[in-house]
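Hi everyone,

Forwarding the result from last night's run.
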Amino acid sequence: MSTVSETFGSKVFNDAVMKARLPKDTYKAMQTAIREGKRLDLSVANVVANAMKDWAIEKGATHYTHWFQPLTGITAEKHDSFISPMPGGSIIMEFSGKELVQGEPDASSFPSGGLRATFEARGYTAWDPTSYAFIKEKVLCIPTAFCSYGGEALDKKTPLLRAMQAIDRQAIRILKLFGNEGVKHVTTTVGNEQEYFLVDKEDFDRRPDLLFTGRTLFGARAPKGQELEDHYFGSIKPRVQAFMENLNQELWELGVLAKTEHNEVAPAQHELAPIFSTTNIAADHNQLTMEIMQRVAKKHGLICLLHEKPFEGVNGSGKHNNWSISTDSGVNLLEPGETPFENAQFLLFLCAVIQAVDDYQDLLRVSVASAGNDHRLGANEAPPAIVSIFLGDELSGILDAIDTGSAYGAREKMQMKVGVHVIPHFPKDTTDRNRTSPFAFTGNKFELRMLGSSQSVSDCNMVLNTAVAESLRKYADILEGASDLTSAVHDLILETVQAHKRIIFNGNGYDDAWVKEAEKRGLLNLKTTPDCLPYLVAPKNIELLTSHKVLSETEIRARLEIALEGYKKIVCIEAMTMIDMTRKDILPASAGFQKKLADTIAVKRTYASAADCTYETETLVTAAALSKAAYESVKALEDALAEARAEEDAHKAAEVCKEKVLEQMSELRASVDALEILTATSEWPYPSYGDMLFNVR
């Protein structure tokens, strides 16, 4: 049996494979392209393509695809075989540099936000050589960007790559001022903690809401939920363990650095966390992870739910985005060192992040907005929709000292004592973690905790990279002309602290008092997707993204239209599903249950007039009242839905969905959930929360 070290990356056309299979000159050209972002000559691409094809065929591949990340869904791919006809009816296996570098899928099949007319179908995929090709299900997958015939980005990866270039340019300017001439490249790194639920496939198949929307639209709470706090980090159940082992094996073969796995807070909820990677590779790996999770789960008779809130009343799922900045020499620019108060370079980069998050808190909130994530943010299980930064005691103390001009008393590293003699003492961190913060410093990186479990990591990292690039650009413009660098750096840090300290909050983000305090500070509280999406086209945000050539104004406005239309579609699908379930299953089931109660009452009164009918009578009356309420709510929901679907203006339609459709959905759910509690299990048409959350053992 092969070991993990032998199989890791075995399905990846990685650096080791390229070094072994490519001529030296070709390999060197590839490395230059990867490091410096230079274009590959077609003659070089032909050599790479042939070597890639030979390797893939040896691994059992028969097809190739340009694998990309559209603006909706997880990933997209169109498979083409390697076969080419030969005279006499034979074939050869071919793959050219032109086919490697560029593909041509149907762009009209993907949302464009008005960039293309429906009949204009041409689009292009462009190879991203910085992300390794890999084999999935006998298909060679080539990571690519996706653009329209006119060159507009139609995917999530292209803007991310542009943003990475932006922060690279500006960070290099700052590092040169500090004498770091040897640094040629700066990149951001990301590690994403992927949360998810596992449910039995048989239960899933009997839930139309899960099938159509990814979340339960109805469901009374189970007698036991997460209140005993016995699931988090608990013993992993055998069936789940088998799934995790299978998942790890497949991910490791694909070069994904899957590292940590455990139960999460809610029953049936789990988490997988990888080791950090360069941001664009991390984005690819996370999309791949979500896809593989869903496929492997089915092999074990399970369904993997990636929705942010699949079950009401228990914790939803997020995807914590651990973000940092590193040089090509291996230096983490957000590493404080032993004496962060003496580390001017670290403090300047820290201030750049603080300024970026404060200046572009609206854009950062937009980057994590979705109909699914609206159910999670601010629900005392995830960070509030208010963006703030947690720095901890030590860094906050340093910035306070700078702000007030007072001396900073450096904290000594304390030894943690746990009261058991055989356990060695170990250094205690100078600050605790804050799980209620949307954007928390965690030692040498920032953890963005607002991202939803089903969302791409590309959007939020695109915003982070671009916003920090803008702060660094402003700093570099000032410092490059300074006569006294030390004084200029000190003044910049001081000005940043004084101007942006409002964004720093180390307290409990779940506390209602913070909402009031945040309002006093002038921080935005954008609770829903319709609330925050208009900020995408705020003049300052358009200026940010266009000035760093991350997105054009046309691309920005197109993304707004796509996001608004997507929100409307999701809410409307959920509403239609609720209507369908209520009319076809729930109300008939309730009527059948009421008939049995009425028949029982009649039989008792006929044959045993003295028999007590209190249970049957009271239950019948209550069930009838709830059925009426549910029926009235269905009709009101149908009216609200019709209004939303008829509204042609995307902004107004989203508002109707938020204000009317979701409100009626909530009222309908309340009546139906009460009915479920009342109705006999044998009569209820769907698996209960108890079934779904506790059936996987």
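The radius of gyration is 28 Å.

Cheers,
N.
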